[in-house]
Amino acid sequence: MAPSNKANRKAVLDAAAWMFNVVTSVGIIIVNKALMATYGFSFATTLTGLHFATTTLIMAVLRWLGYIQSSHLPLPELLKFVLFANFSIVGMNVSLMWNSVGFYQIAKLSMIPVSCFLEVVMDKIRYSRDTKLSIAVVLLGVSVCTVTDVSVNTKGFIAAFIAVWSTSLQQYYVHHLQRRYNLSSFNLLGHTAPAQAGTLLLLGPFLDYLLTNKRFDSYSYNLVSVMFIIVSCTIAVGTNLSQFICIGRFTAVSFQVLGHMKTILVLIIGFFFFGQEGLNVHVVLGMILAVAGMIWYGNASSKPGGKEHHRSLSLPTSR
Questions:
Q1: Nearest CA-CA partner of 19 in 259, 302, 297
Q2: What is the pLDDT of residue 318?
Q3: Is pLDDT above 50 for 316?
Q4: Could you tell me the pTM of the whole model?
Q5: How far apart are the C-alpha atoms of 10 and 2, rounded to whole Å?
Q6: Which residue has the higher pLDDT, 315 or 57?
Q7: Least packed by Cβ within 10 Å: which of 2, 46, 54, 166?
Q8: What are phi and psi of 126, to 5 degrees?
Q9: Strand, helix or coil at 71?
């Protein structure tokens, strides 16, 4: 295949991966918002466990049909990943509950510099001046249109700190494990989803009760709420898979930076379809600034020297 054809094919696949992630991520946010706000299903951790249980089922079917080949992931690596991933989920839920929305958004934004730090330390990545500036523009733009009230307390800060570092480590390891053990996105998700489903379904109801003072088994289920739960779980399969595909094809930093396009889209959808107030010049300018920064980042990081290894890494492949 000619180099130009390879480049075009990669560009198409990259765009498809991002679109897949954006559509499923925005979709699940809208469905979960309706499920929790309209129907009062406030069991976020348990719902995430159901998401991973559904993902486990789909991966098992695909493996049975022969679409996923057998692979190996050492148990210590699996346990490490599941620890980071579960702390990420629980930490984000607790952080949102204990902090103001403004500080929660600041914590989410801080994942970008933390992810950069991990890449610099672990992979010896060097960023060009333009790449660094573009990231700063994205951070500024998203903060302008999302951060409003900012208040913090000790326990909220600790929850946010744990959430930020565990999420950044989980996303770093998605890319790292795929490279090191030559795993596809399907392979890695097939290894990690069952462990996450089991732990979250075991601990989720207890944690949700502590956070909401409501019992999962006492919720008044009806046909509509159950349908929303099923739709949420179905979309979650795509969300989980697309995250692994995107981080595998790119890096955790690129996923974080360009992923804030989802934040902008959710804001726009909220303003136009849910009648949220607050769409003003201030917010619009923040959105424009964020999108401009994302475009700049995509261009800067793809140029020679925009984002490169300081030295080559020797990553053994284990089977």
A1: 259
A2: 44
A3: no
A4: 0.84
A5: 12
A6: 57
A7: 2
A8: -120, 135
A9: coil
Q: Is the model's pLDDT at 126 over the cut of 90?
A: no
Report d(CA 228, CA 1) in Å as an integer.
45
CA distances from 155 to 91, 159, 269, 290 (A): 11, 6, 32, 30
**Which tokens sit at 270?**
């909220």
DSSP state string for 254-307 = HHHHHHHHHHHHHHHHHHHHS--S---HHHHHHHHHHHHHHHHHHHHHHSTTTE
Per DSSP, the three-state class of 310 is coil
Q: What is the dihedral of CA 166, 134, 25, 51, to 10 degrees?
A: -10
Residues 6+ apart with CB under 8 A from 69: 187
pLDDT digits (tens, 9 = 90+) for 199-235: 999 999 999 998 889 999 889 999 999 999 999 999 9
Of residues 186, 163, 184, 178, the one with CA closest to residue 238: 186
Tokens found for residue 52: 């991973």
Q: How far is CA 28 from the centre of its chain?
A: 12
Q: Which residues contact 8 (CB under 8 A, 6 or more apart)?
A: none
Q: Which residue is listed with tokens 């989920």?
A: 89
| The total number of residues written for the chain in this structure | 319
Helix (H) or strand (E) holding 126: strand 125-127
Tokens of 186: 């399907």
Strand partners, 127: 307
Range with top average pLDDT, 39-43, 94-98, 250-254: 39-43
User: Has residue 41 got a pLDDT over 70?
Assistant: yes
How many CB atoms neighbour CB 72 within 10 A?
12
Q: What is the pLDDT of residue 260?
A: 79
Look at the block and give the residue holding tokens 């999302």.
Answer: 146
> Which burial class, exposed, middle or buried, applies to 231 when counting CB atoms under 10 A from its CB (0-12, 13-18, 19+)?
middle
168-190 pLDDT, tens digit per residue, is 999 999 999 999 999 999 999 99
